[in-house]
Amino acid sequence: MDIEKLVDIILESNNIVFFGGAGVSTESGIPDFRSSTGLYNQKNDTGYSPEYMLSHEFLEEDKVGFTKYYKENLVVPDAKPNITHICLAKLEEMGKLSAVITQNIDSLHHMAGSKNVLEIHGNLRDYYCQDCKKTYTSDQVLYTVEPNYCECGGYIRPNVTLYGEPLPQDTVYKAIDAIRKADVLIIGGTSLAVYPAAAYIDFYNGDKCILINRDPVSRSVAADYIYQGKLSDVFTKVMDRIG
Ligand code: NAD
User: Fold this and answer.
1) Is 85 one of the annotated active-site residues of the chain?
2) 213 lines ligand 1 (CB under 6 A)
3) 231: Cβ contacts below 8 Å, ≥ 6 apart
4) 191 in contact with ligand 1, CB cutoff 6 A
5) What is the pLDDT along the chain (243 residues), one digit of tens a residue?
6) Are 227 and 6 in contact (CB under 8 A)?
7) Catalytic residue among 85, 109, 110, 121, which?
């Protein structure tokens, strides 16, 4: 698909919704899961799959292993928003984009200045005690790879949705509502392999669903326009046009 045509469709809309995944942040230096350079393809001597190490079951079974895995692999403290995050924030500021729905937990959309960010898998900014629910910030937790415990003795966990846990319902309702009402739906940087998140795109009613992804996506039939390549190829051009 010709990039200029995609840019025209994006810029003609005043109700864009962006639905993204880990591929949005690879150009900020955060690995995704399923690409050739992703976490699932990196050597791992634990004998467990990454899905298992990011599951509720593993958290309950081995808090030391769970904590070490997420802090060493998912926390990238120096990561900065890239052109895609920045352009999406700009489109929102211009009144053209109504929501960013993200499966990411890295907070880079917030950092870029986006306001309506629907984090359907939670985030790594917020933490809470599993027992008494007291809340904590990343500064209070991320100074060590060891598990952190609350004054009540409970384990302090990140506010992310682990495999085997339900998604935050309020956020999911808002995401589905935004997708239903969208004029243009841009799906980017996601393999659409994680459910139920991937199913939410089915609520889109329009005829301008754009899929931008580096690797082929099995659910690409849902898209009206497909660009197979980097998100920055498209969003650099959008940025050039909006100035
Ligand atoms: P995924 O790893 O399954 O798929 C990422 C997709 O992005 C791949 O198909 C890849 O081809 C594409 N991609 C990579 N870089 C790209 C680029 N520059 N431009 C365009 N496409 C690019 O990721 P997913 O579908 O988001 O599912 C993985 C789950 O893991 C999500 O639930 C997410 O919460 C979590 N995750 C989050 C982060 C993060 O917060 N940054 C990182 C890794 C995983």
Assistant:
1) no
2) yes
3) 23, 24, 27, 84, 188, 189, 212
4) yes
5) 799 999 999 999 999 999 999 999 999 999 998 888 888 888 777 889 888 999 999 999 999 999 999 999 999 999 999 999 999 999 999 999 999 999 999 999 999 999 999 999 999 999 999 999 999 999 999 999 999 999 999 999 999 999 999 999 999 999 999 999 999 999 999 999 989 989 999 999 999 999 999 999 987 677 999 999 999 999 999 999 998
6) yes
7) 121
